[in-house]
Every structure is written in structure tokens, then in C-alpha cells.
């Protein structure tokens, strides 16, 4: 068992979203499978300055590490404005454990690499969406009964795949007034079955 945190950094229209998953091995029909018990879902209010976002994330990670006497693995979307947040958190790395920067790419693949002592992941949105769908269908994601979980359920219903004239797929919630930040944070937290923490 361990904890994995997925963080989708908000931009102009989407708030920053955080999903905390506890992994648990369960024996099903003579084989072990990983289940994800979602212990925390949160949206940081839209318009919160990025240093405050980084501070809130750092505090959450530090509190979880102290409470569980272990270091959670943190996957943070660094594709757009997330990179400065990654940098701010990595400055305080001993307090907040290991931060893995995730860069969204086109396609249905996931790759991981180490650069200058840091881990980073390149993650296809198609991979994230298909994995989320498979885990939900298999009953391997266990959501709490909270207002945020209800918002997440609505996001998953609003999630779409759209193709453009160049045959490029786009994934997300496209209708005005809809969001996909909690769904993305959840997808980051459950992207692999065997999360392995890293030391810096």
C-alpha cells in the first residue's frame, strides 16, 4: 500500500485540482490487482496565485507524509503553467518528498525518464482516458461520497474525444461551463498500478 497524488494545475478557466489515492492490493480470482481508494479530492479556488497554490500543495503533501510516516508519490501536470509549480515544490523537496513532472503528449503511450536527478513522465491523453475508463469499468477506483466526488462524476460524463481536420484527437470537457480538472487529477493519480517512489 502507498499513496499517490495527482495534481492538475489550473489555468485561466480551470481551477487546480488534487486527487489523493491510496493503493491497495486485492486478490481477485487467484490473482492480485491494484485498487485505488480515493482519500481526498480538492479544487483550489480559481484565481489563487501560483505561490499560494504551491504552498497549499506542499502543506497537503507534508501533512500526508507525516500522518502516514511515508513519502507519497506526486504526479504534477507540468505541461503549461505547471512547470513553475514543479520548480517551486522541488526547491522544498525534502519537506514534500518526490515530485514527478508530467508532460501531456499526443497518443496512447506513457514514457518515463530521469533528467538531472529528477523523474519526468510523458503521458498521452488517450492513455490517461482509456486507463481511467478501464479502471472505472473494472470497479478498481473507489470514490468517497463527497461533493467533490459528485463533481468528478459529472466531469467524467462530460469528458469527450474530438477529432479535428488534421485527424488529431483532443480530450476534455469542451462545453461552456464544464471542467475536466478533477478527472485529469484522478487520471494522474491512477496512471500505473505499481507506483514507485523516487529519492532525489
Description of the molecule:
- This protein is α/β, with parallel strands linked by helices and 200 residues long.
- It has 6 helices and 10 strands.
- It has helices at residues 50-68, 82-91, 93-96, 125-137, 147-158, 181-189; strands at 2-8, 16-28, 31-44, 73-77, 98-105, 110-115, 118-124, 141-142, 160-163, 169-172.
- An 8-stranded mixed beta sheet has the order 6-7-5-4-1-2-3-8, with helices on both faces. A two-stranded antiparallel ribbon has the order 9-10.
- α1 (50-68) packs across α2 (82-91) and α4 packs across α6.
Task: Give the key terms.
200 residues, alpha/beta, Nucleotidyltransferase, domain 5, 8-stranded mixed beta sheet, two-stranded antiparallel ribbon, 34% helix
The helix-strand sequence is EEEHEHHEEEHEHEEH
What kind of assembly state do the chains in view correspond to? single chain
Regions with little confidence, pLDDT below 50 for 5+ residues = 171-178
Question: What class, by secondary structure content?
Answer: alpha/beta
Number of E-type strands: 10
Q: Evaluate the radius of gyration.
A: 16 Å
Counted up, domains total 1
What is the residue-mean pLDDT, rounded to a whole number?
81
User: Which strand order does the major sheet show?
Assistant: 6-7-5-4-1-2-3-8
Q: Which band does the percent of strand residues land in?
A: 35-45%
Biggest beta sheet attributes = 8 strands, mixed
Using the 3D structure, state the CATH architecture.
Answer: 2-Layer Sandwich
**What's the N-to-C terminus distance?**
21 Å
CATH class: Alpha Beta
CATH topology: Nucleotidyltransferase, domain 5
Question: Count of helices?
Answer: 6
**What's the shape?**
globular
Helix content: 25-40%
Amino acid at each position: 500500500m502507498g499513496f499517490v497524488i495527482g495534481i492538475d494545475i489550473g489555468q485561466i478557466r480551470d481551477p487546480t485540482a488534487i486527487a489523493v489515492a491510496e493503493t491497495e492490493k486485492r486478490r481477485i480470482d487467484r490473482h492480485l490487482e491494484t485498487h485505488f481508494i480515493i482519500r481526498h479530492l480538492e479544487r483550489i479556488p480559481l484565481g489563487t496565485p501560483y505561490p499560494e497554490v504551491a504552498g497549499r500543495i506542499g502543506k497537503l503533501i507534508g501533512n500526508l507524509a507525516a500522518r502516514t510516516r511515508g513519502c507519497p508519490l506526486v504526479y504534477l501536470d507540468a505541461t503549461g503553467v505547471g512547470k513553475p509549480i514543479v520548480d517551486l515544490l522541488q526547491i522544498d523537496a525534502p519537506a514534500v518528498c518526490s515530485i514527478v513532472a508530467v508532460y501531456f503528449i499526443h497518443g496512447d503511450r506513457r514514457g518515463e525518464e530521469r533528467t538531472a536527478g529528477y523523474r519526468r513522465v510523458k503521458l498521452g491523453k488517450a492513455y490517461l482516458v482509456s486507463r481511467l475508463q478501464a479502471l472505472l469499468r473494472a470497479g478498481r477506483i473507489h470514490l468517497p461520497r463527497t461533493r467533490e466526488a459528485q463533481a468528478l462524476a459529472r466531469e467524467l460524463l462530460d469528458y469527450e474525444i474530438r477529432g479535428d481536420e488534421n485527424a488529431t484527437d483532443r480530450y476534455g470537457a469542451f462545453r461552456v461551463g464544464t471542467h475536466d480538472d478533477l478527472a485529469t487529477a484522478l487520471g494522474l493519480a491512477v496512471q500505473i498500478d505499481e507506483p514507485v517512489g523516487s529519492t532525489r
